[in-house]
Design brief:
Structural class: alpha/beta
Family: In the C-terminal section; belongs to the class-I pyridoxal-phosphate-dependent aminotransferase family.
Radius of gyration: 22 Å
Strand content: 5-15%
Strand order of the largest sheet: 4-11-10-9-8-5-6-7
Organism: Massilia violaceinigra
GO molecular function: transaminase activity
Helix content: 40-55%
Distance between the termini: 54 Å
Number of helices: 16
Protein name: PLP-dependent aminotransferase family protein
Keywords: Aminotransferase, DNA-binding, Pyridoxal phosphate, Transcription, Transcription regulation, Transferase
Number of strands: 16
């Protein structure tokens, strides 16, 4: 065990045993360094680890404080979903558009947003690099990089795959206008109107919109809020419906926050390979892990080129730049043709700025700081849910990302709550928008990726009062 791990273990045992209580201040870094005979860097790493576990939180200019012990957190949802087994046509877009319109207003508390706060990102440095990239732009690059994307950026992405133990050649990568375009291109490359697609239940509403828009049918598979899709149920669906694709999130799934274990990812890839069904893997939250190591994507276990791994910089570095990519495996040519026939290319200056940023270093340092911030905000947010929401509320405990899934008790109605909250200037994402069939009426997705302040505290208290009022009537 490393020195920082031993220190973090000792402090966590004190918290979980009750020796340290919520609100207690941890000794200063200097004091702990002297008393334990370790470097300040070791103490900081231990405190960062505890912060990532949700046990302590940093307060500006005040130090580190015990947040809340695990025993006092709200209980987790503990059962998988139970969707109908039939393939279903979709009609989701109008409901989703109504939600998205509310999250675009700055005067609304954005608990319903799918994006973290833009204040968490190094946008000033990216702007300077954007200026540099424009000045250095090779005129011929607009031709050479037309559809696959900036060659330097694709090389940097290939290197990041290599760091995670995966061999993904730059020629396999197609740069896109955000991950959502990558996912849509993948779907268009392998499915035709009338085909069926395997999805999680609940599923990210953008996947439901894409399936609806392309005239496809959705097959919802039971999904557990901790470890993801039920593979036995997935196999039954593969045998019965013979879908043309499977679209899912293996790391910090939206909206549940579930993390599929590595062994289960391997089994998933093997299962789909037996049926020769391509996997469209949405991995936009993969870099936002709170543990010691980035969770591998399912792509890491792909030996046949069936996994199309999609991600972007929108959630972890550059929101608004709309730069994503897909490592498309055996479908690279089909995806590139779909890109050529639709949006043709992706913003050259934005690609250049991101390539420069990755080449100059600093990305991993930014990610570490971002992860620590999000982990701390999750702990504060969950403690506020515990204080303000009624007994019986269940809340997921994601090990990454910035989304929480709540199961509300009694007669709670998420759609009515959404309307009541919006009247108070608060947006939430009600459970029914994440399903192609009736369900999740008592569920909410809440975003804790915006800075916690008195306004956020008051908004969550207001939500809690609305839920209390609902379940009493």
């Amino acid at each position: 065990m490393k020195l920082y791990e031993a220190l973090a273990r000792d402090i966590s045992e004190s918290i979980l045993s009750g020796a340290l209580q919520p609100g207690d201040r941890l000794p200063s870094v200097r004091k702990t360094s002297a008393s334990r005979g370790v470097s300040p860097a070791t103490v900081f790493e231990a405190y960062y680890t505890l912060e990532a576990q949700g046990l302590v939180q940093a307060r500006e200019r005040s130090g580190y404080f015990v947040s809340v012990s695990a025993e006092r957190l709200p209980p987790e949802p503990d059962t998988a979903s139970r969707p109908a087994e039939d393939a279903l046509p979709l009609a989701m877009s109008e409901r989703v558009f109504d939600l998205l319109e509310t999250t675009m207003r700055r005067d609304v508390v954005p608990f319903g947003s799918a994006f973290p706060s833009p204040l968490l990102f190094p946008l000033a440095r990216l702007a300077r690099l954007m200026s540099t990239s424009v000045q250095q732009l090779d005129p011929w690059a607009s031709v050479d990089d037309l559809t696959p994307g900036n060659a330097r950026l694709r090389r940097q992405l290939s290197l990041r795959y290599l760091i995670d133990g995966m061999t993904v050649h730059a020629d396999e990568i197609v740069v896109t206008n955000g991950a959502l375009e990558a996912l849509n291109l993948c779907l268009m490359a392998v499915a035709r109107p009338g085909d069926a697609v395997l999805i999680e239940s609940p599923a990210f509403y953008a996947s439901l919109q894409a399936i609806e828009r392309q005239g496809l049918e959705a097959i919802a598979v039971p999904t557990h809020p901790r470890d993801g899709m039920d593979l036995a149920a997935a196999e039954r669906a593969l045998e019965r419906h013979r879908p043309k694709a499977c679209w899912l999130m293996t790391n910090f799934q939206n909206p549940l926050g579930s993390l599929m274990p590595d062994e289960k990812k391997r089994d998933l890839v093997r299962l789909l390979a037996r049926y020769q069904v391509p996997l469209i893997e949405d991995d936009v939250f993969g870099e936002l892990y709170f543990g010691d190591k980035r969770p591998l994507p399912a792509k890491a276990f792909d030996t046949e080129g069936l996994v199309m791994h999609c991600s972007s910089f929108s959630k972890c570095l550059a929101p608004g730049y709309r730069v994503g990519w897909v490592a498309a495996g055996r479908f690279t040519r089909q995806v590139a043709r779909q890109k050529l026939a639709s949006t043709l290319t992706t913003c050259a200056p934005a690609q250049g700025a991101l390539a420069l940023y990755l080449e100059k270093g600093g990305y991993d340092r930014h990610l570490r700081l971002l992860r620590h911030q999000l982990a701390a905000q999750q702990a504060v947010f969950m403690d506020a849910v515990r204080r303000h929401f009624p007994e019986g509320t269940r809340v997921t405990r994601p090990k990454g990302g910035y989304l929480l899934w709540l199961e509300l008790p009694g007669a709670a109605d998420a759609l009515a709550l959404h309307a009541a909250a919006l009247a108070e200037g608060i947006s939430v994402a009600p459970g029914p928008i994440f399903s192609p069939q009736p369900g999740f009426e008592n569920c909410l997705r809440l975003n804790y990726g915006h800075l916690w302040d008195a306004r956020a505290e008051q908004a969550l208290a207001t939500l809690g009062r609305i839920v209390h009022a609902q379940i009493k009537t």
